[in-house]
């Protein structure tokens, strides 16, 4: 199953990054969204991201132009008809993803791989909504896509070996490292990071200062960011939603800590409300 044409669904935060790294690796890319203005915004983000490389001297102006020339924009999903690999990066709503996959099942070539960039939704359930679940797989990029080296790859129970092998080859070709995870809520990355954050909430409840918890994780465990800073950045409501999903799957050991629930109820969601574990200047 040779991949040369990649079709990306969604030109948002993740979609434009996926389109960029695919085009940088030489793939012919089409990036889609529901409105022209969203496609244009995604293209502008890619252009600015490549500009950083040009400014740093790691990329020539001519290379940037060649990469951009390999990316087409569209608002018509039917343009996925000749794609070898489709990567869906639409919002994290199970019913939306299932409906996109049903449409792709009709539009795409029978041997095209249909991948989802979901952070936590069940690959098996998305796959089960189409005729050939063997071609469905999770390819979970990290944010920001051009910077982060690791990509989780999540075969569902019915994903074919050919789909898994070709997807791993694609990840290798774009210069990333694939980490294979089983199809349980949160896969590996979200599950571990949520567990770390939840335990950090308990540390604060036990009287530890947030800044000391974050310092301990950054300087003693060598993480680039502390779990409480990360919670403030992602939003306590988003973290709580993730933990509730894990709680349903794994039970008590991933039950959201009472402090997190209290913060969400009080509207202390982190950076977006100027107050979380830390205070932020009014925007
Ligand atoms: N943002 C992150 O840090 C991150 C990290 C890893 C995975 N993810 C996952 O990636 C996916 C996308 O997240 P995001 O942060 O890029 O979201 P986003 O909101 O930035 O972008 C989603 C884009 O999809 C478009 N869209 C909606 N319906 C569509 C359709 N039918 N066809 C084409 N485009 C459509 C929207 O208009 C929007 O531009 C989600 O499943 C999310 O969980 C996000």
Question: How would you characterize the overall build of this protein?
Answer:
The mean pLDDT is 96. It is built from 11 helices and 8 strands. It is globular and about 60 Å long. An 8-stranded mixed β-sheet has the order 3-2-1-4-5-6-7-8, with helices on both faces. Helix 5 links the parallel strand 5 and strand 6. The protein folds into 2 domains: 176 residues, NAD(P)-binding Rossmann-like Domain (Rossmann fold, 3-Layer(aba) Sandwich); 85 residues, N-(1-d-carboxylethyl)-l-norvaline Dehydrogenase, domain 2 (Orthogonal Bundle). By secondary structure, the protein is an alpha/beta fold.
Care to give the gist of this entry?
The chain is α/β, with parallel strands linked by helices. The chain has 11 helices and 8 strands. The protein has 2 domains: 176 residues, Rossmann fold; 85 residues, N-(1-d-carboxylethyl)-l-norvaline Dehydrogenase, domain 2 (Orthogonal Bundle), CATH 1.10.1040.
List descriptors.
283 residues; alpha/beta; Rossmann fold; N-(1-d-carboxylethyl)-l-norvaline Dehydrogenase, domain 2; 8 strands; 13% strand; globular; binds nicotinamide-adenine-dinucleotide
